[in-house]
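Support reply, case 0932

Customer input (verbatim):
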Amino acid sequence: MPTSKTFHLVSLGCAKNTVDSDSMAQLLLEDGFRAVEKPAQASVLIVNTCGFIGPAKEESLAVLGELAESKRPNQLLIAAGCLTQRYGEQVARQVPGIDGILGTRRWMDIVQLTRQLRATPHPAPIYHLPESPTVGADEHGARRVSVAGASAYLKVADGCRRPCAFCAIPLIKGTAVSRPLESIVAEARDLRAAGVKELILIAQDTTDYGHDLGLKDGLATLLEAITDNVPEMDWIRVMYSYPGYVTDRMIDVMAARPQILPYLDIPLQHAHPATLRRMKRPANIEWVHATLAKMRAKISNLAIRTTFIVGYPGETNEEYQTLLDFVQEIRFDRVGAFKFSFEPGTTSEPLGDPVAAEVKEARWARLMEIQQAISLQINQSYVGKILPVLVEGYDNGLSIGRSYRDAPEIDGLVLVEGQLPIGEIVPVHITGGMTYDLTGVPAQVGLTVS
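Our regenerated output:
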């Protein structure tokens, strides 16, 4: 029988969602709740849903349905997050047994909603979906971080003001709201004091940080503030940069401050100007070429990650071939590829979903085949070099870690012979390069790190 103040929280979707989940958990713990691993032990069940694309919606509904079916009368089930922000009533209809609906814009009201559900008879779900503009600032004192071992995600902003036609994030999250610079720096300082070695800055668009605060070049300003105030932080990784907003000052700051990893995640989505215009994305491919060349010239050993969408409405064979040629020319370290997912309510809705599923699949497979060959060649170029590796685990005689080229969960790993100290950054001599991962041995003392 679950005790009166226990919770079980399932977090789905991206790292930004994980930060929201951990912030909700912090507020519940401060209110006297205790986290439990098994749903049967909890008095409150919470699913922080993802609603970005179709498969994510289906996963969220499936998890909610499973918990609802096994839920006992004395348990509460709260559906929170992106899916419920946009489709709250539909979710409640599809999954009988949900007691509360909490949108992603008011995650910080989780304790308030829980108290309301526990105190008030509710034959129908209670909805808490105010479209408050204060998300990003009104955080009830919760830290906006998610810690995993020696790494931590730190959310610097929420929402998005970009007009991308395929994306539902502005409909879900609202416009971009930056967190106060002082709060971010204070959290970075606390994380370092707690032993964190890798700080990962995330937002829907980190390059838009500070626009609403009146900051010019806000991301560069933030990076300077963090490196000035937390000089002991070993690694700082920047995720999700928007094309056209990687400024010269940002490049200079990345090049000058060794704490900032030479790693850029810049989702480009496509390479043909006509496709990009239909996507309502920046279509100046010349800017991409010039900026990436400038970054590679100024930032030693720069690793570049991007994402692309194939099968976008109207994508012709010629447009697709332009994308393949672009990938072969630029030679990205990492590429994520997605098949277009039709999202009602987005500005791409009038375009429909005319590209056949089998065409999308074939285009995705060919793009990944080309990128895998590039990735293998780049990885093999590191054989014989020495890389710093953040050790995250040990299994079956191998230490498992990541280099500066590898963001958690989405990029590769470095597999090192022997047992190395978990949570430490150690030099590794690279002995092999596979399609996604590297292999190595502990480097000899005195060798130079590449």
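We compared this against your earlier run and they match. Two observations from our side: The domain at 145-380 is CATH 3.80.30.20 (pyruvate-formate lyase- activating enzyme). The two ends are 56 Å apart (CA to CA). Please reopen the case if you see a mismatch on your end.
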